Amino acid sequence: MSTNIEHELKQDIKIKHPKKYKVLLLNDDYTSMEFVIEILMNVFHKTYEQAESIMLDVHKKDKGICGIYTYEIAQTKVFTVHKEAKESGFPLKCIMEEA
Prior knowledge:
Blueprint (H helix, E strand, L loop, with lengths): L1 H11 L7 E7 L6 H10 L5 H14 L1 E8 H17 L5 E6 L1
Antiparallel strand pairs: 1-2, 1-3
C-alpha cells in the first residue's frame, strides 16, 4: 500500500520554476558610451568586450539586453542602474520585461 501512496505523491508534485525577466538598457542622446560600458561591467559583471557589444546594441538598436534574472534580482539591477545614472548626472533608463 505504501508504494501506491508514494506513486500518487510523486505525480502530484509539480516543480514550478520562477519567471525570468530581461533587463534592458534604453538608448538616449545624453548618456556617454563610456558610462554605459561602466554600468554593464560594474552592475551586470560583463567583460569589457561583452559590455562594448551590448552598448553598441543600445546605441544602434535603441535597447540592449543586459541579462535575464528572477524578478527580485532584475528589479534590484534596474534600481541600481537608475541610482548610479542619477548620481552621475545621466538620464540612462533601464527596464525589465518578462522573458
